[in-house]
Here is the input.
Amino acid sequence: MIFALATPVGKSAIAVIRVAGEGCHKKINSSLDKPINTFGQIFLRDLRSQEGVLDSCMLVFYKSPKSYCGEDMVEIFSHGGLGVVKGIVGFLEQLGMREAEPGEFTRLSVANNKMSLNEAEMVSTLIDSIDEHEVMLSVAAISGALSERVVRVGDLIDLLRVELESQIDFSDEDGVNEENIDRMGVMCNDIIKQLGDLRNNSRLVDDVGEKKSVLLVGPPNSGKSSLFNSMLGRTRSITSDIAGTTRDMIESEMVFNSNKFSLFDSAGIRDTNDEIESSGISLVLQEAKNQSLVLVVVDSTCLDFIAVSKKILKDVPHIIILNKSDLGDCDSHPGVDFTVSAKTGFGVSGLVKGVAELISSVNQDKERLFLINNRQAKLIDGATVCCVNCLEKISIEDFELAAEELKQSRARLDDFIGSKSSDDLLGDIFANFCIGK
Ligand SMILES: Nc1nc2c(ncn2[C@@H]2O[C@H](COP(=O)(O)OP(=O)(O)OP(=O)(O)O)[C@@H](O)[C@H]2O)c(=O)[nH]1
Ligand SMILES: [Mg+2]
Here is the structure.
């Protein structure tokens, strides 16, 4: 029997402790003021050790196979204090249970055929997701649609293998039938196309969980730091009328309508012969290339900077902001996207909204249906290469090698779903999970 704290360690309103394994219902029931004999419903009970009541908790019993991991399970919702949780954990150990390893519940779920390996991997991606779109994609990846597609391609591979094997058996006797070769070519091409579609419809998990970043750049004194503070709604960066006030990059986190991003204030960019300063400036420009979005801040004294920055930032998503509208010059200038005043707050809320919208659309290919990780992408790519090789072998009528390539391709799809995965591979994958999942 295993147990794990499923919520983070720390003071909180409630904590969730999961227990799994044969006999766990009986063990827990013997420690309750009144036993629970109904599954999938929540009950309020006192959990007692020999010393006395540990906590008054809510409990749900799950009967195998109808549980997250497919085994008998109990979920205990206790008060979230460190003392309470420590007491319950110690008590479960006394009952002979051991603490689960990271991802052990999900691993059991794969072993018990509750989910495929690729779906299990997406459970940890879902937990790492920080925006709604990522959540949507990872939930879809867990739901099984992708696994079904992969299984279907696997079935097509099996069909082609049967055809190929029969060619190997018969070609000696009757010679090669051109029609059969054509048909096998069509089948193989179809498999290659389906694998290609899968890959093109998938977004790589790499950037999931990575926070988006927004950088303010502009000439000295244009009001970058003032705007930075105004967007945050508090003073975080020092401002002054002395050019060159900001020296280092300053970061602050912003959340707007569930969009979370890091906002950076930077040193002013100016033409300079000073070596140290110019290397600082090229650092800012280099940084600018790695941002999700760059906000170029100018005022009416430095409108030339608009053309310069547009040239430098041509491959980076950016917007041009004309600051200090309160000084009177808020005529529309070509290339300006937002006119604001950091001093009076004019236009700042509209700017924040615009930035949040742009951020949530950057790098978000809404067309993509599936989310895959590097391991899964490599397997699909590998399976495709094998099929391309197979097609070539079919064309030169080397059916034995063609069948071998297909076997390799099939093995990769099996690894994708985890139907025949080794313990080592499973160990590596689940080591990255959180405890309690
Ligand atoms: N009137 C007016 N003054 C502003 C506005 N925004 C900033 N300022 C003033 O402009 C000066 C420079 O502002 P900062 O925010 O320090 O400018 P910065 O771009 O961060 O400057 P560096 O860090 O030196 O590159 C300060 O005196 C600010 O009070 C604005 O919207 N209107
Ligand atoms: Mg500044």
In short: The chain is about 45% helix and 20% strand. The first strand starts at residue 2 and ends at 5. The pocket of magnesium ion (ligand 2) is lined by residues 224-225, 245-246, 265 (CB under 6 Å). The chain has three domains: 2-100, 121-201+370-431, 212-361.
